[in-house]
Every structure is written in C-alpha cells, then in structure tokens.
Write a structure and sequence with these properties.
Helix 1 packs parallel to helix 3 and helix 2 packs antiparallel against helix 3. The longest helix has 20 residues. This protein is an all-alpha fold and about 100 residues long. Helices cover about 75% and strands about 0% of the residues.
Amino acid sequence: MPTKTRGLVARYHAQQAINSVRRRDFDDALKSVNRALEWSPQSVPFLILRAHVQTGRKDFAAVLADVEKALEVKPNDTDAQHLRSLALHYLQRHREA
C-alpha cells in the first residue's frame, strides 16, 4: 500500500481513538489507536495518543512504555517528557521523575 494511503488510514484510526476518548471509552480508544500504530508504528503523535489513552485507563506502566518509545524517536518531545514524569510519579518511582 502506498505510504500516503497508509498515513491516511492511520490518521483515520487515530481520529476514532480521539472520538472514543471524548466519550471516555478508553477501551475502544485503545483498540483504535493500536490500529493506527499498526499502520504507522514509529509515529510519535500516535504513541503519545496511546499514552494518553493508557493514562485514562490508569495503566501507568503502559504509559511509560509508550513514552519511552516516543523519546527514542524524538528525545526532546515535551509531551512525552511530561507523560514520563506523570507515569513515574504514579508508579511511585519519584527519583526517576
């Protein structure tokens, strides 16, 4: 599939995830953002979106895993850095935050 089409499909699923978050349906949001990441696995915005979804689900270990991946791709991403600190706080790993 052409790269442009893959990007459009990924963005469609990401928008579905955002709509689900607005309804506070974090399980459905997770399914949608996972589909987006299947099409664009290195997308920092999609990794950050999934981290936000996982924050809503209170799965802070998953939040940390996603932001660590995002920071590998884009080390100075401020959203990822903020979410990393938040996840570490809730995981009681305060010294690392």
